[in-house]
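To assess whether the prediction recovers the assembly geometry, we first specified each molecular entity separately, as shown.
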Amino acid sequence: MYARHCCCIQRCMAVDALNALSIVTYEIDKKRKTNYRNFTNYLEYFQKNDIAATCAMTDVKGDRSLRPSEQADPDLYLRVVEKTEDGIVVRGAKCHTTAAVPSNEIIVMPTRGSREQDEDYAVAFTVPVDVKGLKFVARSTVPQEKREIDAPFRSRWGVTEAVTIFDDVFVPWNRVLMCGEWEFAGQAAELFAVYHRHSYCGCKPGVSDVLMGIAALLAEYNNIEDASHIRGKLTDMACTAEEIYACGIAGSVRGKSMGPGTCAPDMTLVNVGKYVAGTHIYDEIGRVHDIAGGFAITCPSEKDYFNPELKPYLEKYLKGRADVPTEDRLRAFKLAEDLTAHGFAGWLMVASCHGGGSPEAQRITIYRGYDYEKRKNIAKCLAGIKTFDEFPEFEE
Amino acid sequence: MYARHCCCIQRCMAVDALNALSIVTYEIDKKRKTNYRNFTNYLEYFQKNDIAATCAMTDVKGDRSLRPSEQADPDLYLRVVEKTEDGIVVRGAKCHTTAAVPSNEIIVMPTRGSREQDEDYAVAFTVPVDVKGLKFVARSTVPQEKREIDAPFRSRWGVTEAVTIFDDVFVPWNRVLMCGEWEFAGQAAELFAVYHRHSYCGCKPGVSDVLMGIAALLAEYNNIEDASHIRGKLTDMACTAEEIYACGIAGSVRGKSMGPGTCAPDMTLVNVGKYVAGTHIYDEIGRVHDIAGGFAITCPSEKDYFNPELKPYLEKYLKGRADVPTEDRLRAFKLAEDLTAHGFAGWLMVASCHGGGSPEAQRITIYRGYDYEKRKNIAKCLAGIKTFDEFPEFEE
Amino acid sequence: MYARHCCCIQRCMAVDALNALSIVTYEIDKKRKTNYRNFTNYLEYFQKNDIAATCAMTDVKGDRSLRPSEQADPDLYLRVVEKTEDGIVVRGAKCHTTAAVPSNEIIVMPTRGSREQDEDYAVAFTVPVDVKGLKFVARSTVPQEKREIDAPFRSRWGVTEAVTIFDDVFVPWNRVLMCGEWEFAGQAAELFAVYHRHSYCGCKPGVSDVLMGIAALLAEYNNIEDASHIRGKLTDMACTAEEIYACGIAGSVRGKSMGPGTCAPDMTLVNVGKYVAGTHIYDEIGRVHDIAGGFAITCPSEKDYFNPELKPYLEKYLKGRADVPTEDRLRAFKLAEDLTAHGFAGWLMVASCHGGGSPEAQRITIYRGYDYEKRKNIAKCLAGIKTFDEFPEFEE
Amino acid sequence: MYARHCCCIQRCMAVDALNALSIVTYEIDKKRKTNYRNFTNYLEYFQKNDIAATCAMTDVKGDRSLRPSEQADPDLYLRVVEKTEDGIVVRGAKCHTTAAVPSNEIIVMPTRGSREQDEDYAVAFTVPVDVKGLKFVARSTVPQEKREIDAPFRSRWGVTEAVTIFDDVFVPWNRVLMCGEWEFAGQAAELFAVYHRHSYCGCKPGVSDVLMGIAALLAEYNNIEDASHIRGKLTDMACTAEEIYACGIAGSVRGKSMGPGTCAPDMTLVNVGKYVAGTHIYDEIGRVHDIAGGFAITCPSEKDYFNPELKPYLEKYLKGRADVPTEDRLRAFKLAEDLTAHGFAGWLMVASCHGGGSPEAQRITIYRGYDYEKRKNIAKCLAGIKTFDEFPEFEE
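The predicted structure of the complete assembly is given in tokenized form:
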């Protein structure tokens, strides 16, 4: 539960990747007569051993205006450099691998669609984190010891992100899930995106819950809950959370069973949900600031608050409503600071914006998948250019 | 189907009112030991005879800062002026009664919650349109003969709206569904709103389909479909439609069965959906204008186009892409004009904004119904003011 | 004054065109050794005779993805078809020519930049409206007789727009202001746009004044002026008007004297102002609707109001606050309807959006003219990639 | 210059306070026959000695629903507790005092309008920072040693904010600028706000320059400068900066000379400018994130980059365009991180939002100062309720 930890264990990454791979390996087998029932074996192993995995997807990409095989350095997208009887050797680097370090395994997916000349880049597989040649250049975002009041929900580890380097890593065939089937790389990437954007529709409202909670609490502590502009801002926050959540539910309802029986959510709806999430996080944080006031960045530290010489002054002057202990008010401001005005807020904003793909990626997916032709036909009929009789789908 | 007629038969009004009344009459009977099984009798009659009805809800209200019984004129909210053995006599006026004139019957609902002193105003009933004392001051919004090209989807009747006057109308007891149970008036109004806002979540995306259709068609005819800002605007339109639609589906999924077995949609979700619909219609129309260009208001009339002296000039100079007949292009512009730059657009905008209640009404409903306390508790726990153990609902 | 007539005499078109031409003809003369002092002669004549002129600029354009000389029909941009000793013969059509019919003269400008192969399209000149071969296919937008209450500010002529056809019109050399100087066509078009967008920064706040006026008046008549969301919406409207106005003033302050001594406003600022105007008109109209309520489209007609049988009912039931006569309230709603929910609103919205160029045209101008390199250099210095010493412009 | 230091010396606080006090002391003297020419003496001293001062304005406020004298603790707004022949003794605390610690003096202003019973709270004066009884509980926001690449523009002191406690501080009469003139407290607070919001209109575009700079630089380094959505986002950022700047210039142009000859900027325009600044900072930061991509929070640290074992990998895999050194790209990401995804971004957002007063404070000021009556009169005339002849101000 997001609220309880103000963070999550990021297992969505693996589950979303496995869902996508279940479909893609099935489709590849059907067309290419391959035997990627490696996938079901892996799934069984994954479930039986309760594997904690992450998914490494985004390649480092180099010059973004060039395709994989056009780059000055051919390794800027991960690729197969050797095939042997026993397996494949891969080289390259994935970035933005959240939670790689504490995982047992890494599931590797292609980052984008390929053309035939990029077939070496159409590769998916799994590896344990301690495989030879696998290196993480990890960073820990804003780790901070939780103290008495300051940094209320922090851990001393923070959130780990990594550049994941495959320095000629060997992968045995039974862990290979795609190798050279370039025409399926796009589908793999898209399906992962669909599942992961659907996950956001469920998890982002949990973030909103926390942000609304601290905003509403500070409104109460400052005794401005009845101001209509405060109520309006809290309403805006609820609207954002519920729009995202609605897209998630509707995305499930309109989901469809795919080849192997895996259900895929509705592409348009989940993209809309993730898009709202990734673009509205800034407003949400702005509303918390607006309601909290300047203390979100000017509130004294607990070191000063607990200093016996200063405490009487701060007890007196940081007091809000008579019935709220000064310390509680201070705690609430420190939570607001940590959530919305600290490095954690930076992580939250960027992760909301780019996790599961950038807002532009969602917009492109929505545009490409949307049936504008059907809607043009409605307009043609209403304008007298065509008649509804020509379109059986408009039968009443 | 909205698209086919670019309008609708407005039967949602009656259905939404009946759903609301099914619950309220049941609750009244349970508490007040009344016998509003009049309702089920009416429903049977309604279904058996395929009654086309509308719902008259909004009172004329006079000075909006005053409650019903405080008005200078006590009739500014509809009220019971006499009770006899056979029935009741009602006086007052309802406004904004869409589609009253072509209906068989009118279902009358209270417009708002009441206090005890307003009990005469807590009244709901049904009447046939030809009952004695019932008067409609109707108007027909932008009726226009459909011509060859101009006014492509119009009818010579337009959309009818009415001020519905009850000049001491007698209603027999078997048609009375609420009479004096002031403590239920608020619930009746709210439930109607919930159902009607849910209806909007289904119907407004149909309006968006038409608007997207004409925008996309003009983009094609002007050969600007590939311009990225055009694609972006069409994407925005799709997002709006899908957000509303998602709230409708999610509102159904999260609906709950009420006392008599009628299912009511989730109040928050459908209010969010209607709110998005009512506030985004302006953007949607703006995007059509943006894509269409100035011809939406400067395009010559069909009278000029079909004038033999002018036609060669207009054929030549109104030509767009080589493969699109000038007349088709002209038809598309005329549809854009009629939909978005004519009196019909005015109706569409105001009806989207205020139908089912104003945006502010939705905001108030969302705010009041939202569980901010639960979210404050999350914040309290994260801030160390409380612990999660104190709240069983946060059990993992 | 916009407010007084709820319309304007559109003389900005000619003045903006003359300002632009004063600079361009001066620059052409300097480079090409031409003698476009025709311009100053014309200006003298224009001022002496108090000529009312409009500017015909936008060509019909045909397939928008093709340049003038690439079109299937070479006349889809206005062009010189013959040059004689006495003058030139032009053919083509301009569209969206507002107020052409009541003008004395038409000033013709090129619509866009040219390449060398398009030199026939680089032409500017003036003609009287009764010149041989000039035809207007005019339309009158929403003409309506002003009645007692309905259509309060209308005229029976409406706003005239025209497709202006040049069917081999002869223009004597002394009225020719550009002819074949293709490399100046872009500057002419841009300068007209700059002046005209500047004009919008002054005139659009006048439109906003009227819209704010009717919104505030209805708030008063409905006695909801003290509701905080109403105050908030009126505040939003003031912000929009003042942002546009501020861009106009700042655009003047930062203007620069050009070659012949004509002052040109700051390109970026006036484009920002027009952009805000053209994209916010939808919100402004939406706020009027929101404040007015449904009566903006459901209010009975004056025919019903003055009908002796109906008047007592409507006097009684359309009454708002006790101190406001019903007729005044009805008049206010009719003004709201006419301004924001009628064909006039369509004209207002599209004219705000596309007049002086589309929002996208402003965005492109802003992007192209903005000094991002300077700002990149700031970032480079702050990031330690360069040092401020390398950039004399950052000297403190 | 903001760009050069990515911060400022905050001298606007004192200058804005002195401007406001020049007017208020003049007005008080005129009405109350006091002798606040203490002000001009102080100004002379201030200029002669080049005093660096800050202004302490915002009281800690306690329960915000209560006025100063109604608080449980009378000291929650700063007040005069004693008057002697030599001066006054003040008690209370001001919060959010930016740059107090490095200042020479503090200028103290009342935080809001007073009623007669609050006259002890209507007090303004100046003190040196080392006066007896004055205490700062200061905090340093995100101090960080500038390193080779990380934390590129940081200082090891950060931004200082303080709670400024007046523990019975004695102020001699010649430093007292207001004492008990409760009817002028509101004007003092408002005037300071006007000047300070005007300052924001000049300084906030400097912040935008830096944010646009890093966004544009990363677009270049990622080779996505030509993507139309990137250009669109950079255009949005330019629009925001220029709108704010335009309000500043227009606020000056429309300024008026006040009683003592001090010029005060236009209240409405500068409030609109500050409002745009304070509410759009979130979008601006969002656009930087959007353009930068996930590396804004996942980019490895310089410690890893300079690690000889890791450097070859990071040089290879963090390479973008062939012509941009990896280190430059890394530096740019680190600047983006520091500016927009770190504690400094929190400070920037909250300071933009609340500095010079909250967005709601600006909205209230705009609404209260705006002449809606004049605009209602326009509407009345257009609706036929009044005639323009009744209003001389509408004379053409």
